[in-house]
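Quick illustration, no need to memorize.
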Amino acid sequence: MTKSTWVNWAGEQRCTPAVVAAPRGVEELAEIVTTSADAGRTVRVAGSGHSFTDAVLTDGTLIDLSGLDRVIEVDTATNRVRVEAGITLHAASPLLHQHGLAFPNLGDIDVQTIAGATATGTHGTGARLRNISAALHSVQVLRADGTLVELDEQTDPEGWKAARVSLGALGIVTAVTLQLEPSFVLENVERPMPVDEVLADLDELVDGNDHFEFYAFPHSTTAMTKANNRTEATEQPRGAAGEWLNDILLANHVYGGLCRLGKRIPATIPAIHRFAAFVGSNNRRVDRSYRVFATTRLVKFNEMEYAIPRAHAADAIREILALGRRFGTLMPIEVRWVAPDDAFLSPAGGRETCYIAVHQYEGMQWQPYFRACEAVFNSYEGRPHWGKHHFQTAETLRARYPDFDRFTAVRHRFDPTGVFANDYVRRVLGPLA
């Protein structure tokens, strides 16, 4: 155990915990937690650091679960897999593919740990598909007293619905059983479309594809659409040179250079938007699902993302694009769709959902732009992505989550003394007292 400074991926969040611990097993983890609780230190867990909020920050004990990264058990008869909580989606997917299994859906970034991705309600896109936490058949949680509890729909339905999206407020998730499905191949087609045409045909595009999303730059009339559909075709992995050209050179180095130019010379932003929208489209590939879902992100930014009722998508998108022009953001908005689920704190809980994400390039002021966007999202009963910037509190969120108080009851049951609370948890979930 050593004392050091922790910093998230975007470089905006940092803390210097009294203790940073990287246990290699559950018994060692339990000892760390009980020792910390006895000493009056709060306990938080750091995954890959890809959340933009202060959800991880603590001056107490910070746990690194990267040592708990095994695939424990695979049951191909039920398509269920038991994994330790510290395994990343990036590491898990190829290992699961060896057993002929895959996640039904993934986001476009896969560096997160399974515990971190599910705790924050991370999602992909697909109107008939739920977020990643919906794959949790059962969840093992380590409580402040060092006891382990296995939660599923039969043993503790309230605890299970709370633990699937928990913000780390119940305890430490140590292992999960995932309900997966047979591996599949996706055909990915990326093509430009006029923004107005996309918004006019949203239902057809969203319902007519297994996975549909699009990016739109505020100063461009062209949207970059992405449709992923299952196919019986054989996977056709790209060569190393093609992968580097598309995913690293164009999508990261060239685009990063354009962002640096726009940051120095704001007058170039409209032209950058039009150029980026033009060169970022017209691609096709056929490959394993997890290879198609995930993209490499080297350009740093800050992000806010909100889940709103699907019916309001087109109106909200128009308003957000107008704000992007007003505030001079360099980056596009990203729009995705998710099916309803029943986790208490899932942003998609109980309703068909459209997610709209806004971004600001690193080093640029993001708060005024994000506050203006949040005002729009608020007007549509928006719920924030728990791992991305927002300015909500328990008072503003309670009415947006019908099961907020049911989550609070589970939280009182699992962590009555607030060992796993920090400023973020108390702000968005309220104090325990």
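The first strand starts at residue 6 and ends at 7.
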